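Quick note —
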Amino acid sequence: MAAIDNIDACVFDAYGTLFDVAAAASHCQEDLGDQWAPLAQIWRDKQLQYTWLRSLMDEYVPFWQITQNALDYAMASLKIEDDVLRQKLLDVYFRLDVYPEVPGVLQKLKAGGKKVATLSNGSPDMLNSAVNNAGLELDAVSSVDKIGIYKPDGRIYQMACDDLNVTKERVCFMSSNAWDAWAAANFGFQVVWVNRFNQPPERLPGTLRETIQDLNALPVLLGMD
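Predicted structure written out below.
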């Protein structure tokens, strides 16, 4: 791997990159049985689809509303009718598990003088709850709610530059969502795709700097080890 130089800030997508989006359903396996994995997948797919569709329709609502709408769709598609379970799933979403390597990697980046932030579709209350629950120390928690449109709109990526007072060329952006990684690269970030699920590359505009399996490889990639 060739080192990525001249980076002032490391900006991370939140859901799927720092936080395990399947954790809510996983923690409810006792209630869901073998339906937990299908529910997690449908929930996540609809969550993303609704952000894109609402952006195109110019019908923005906060991500917390989208998260509830997507869960309702997922439960209906699996014919699950349980209001108590629905609330339990939503409650867990405010304290999602982080991937195991996340705290140590973020600490190493900050110790090495990098600004560290998250840039997410998530609503501010959702993000702050998850970040605080995981004990992460970030220089900025940037939410699309500030602008009122979802990724991959270029204004969202520019918001990270503005919030951290850095130019886009000096931002290293990490996402496990391939569409997000390519969009950020097309915007002008130095992008590292965290391909946690061994997916094929997207056929979209934008050139990535590197692909890694998890965040453990990031400090080395930035020449910090």
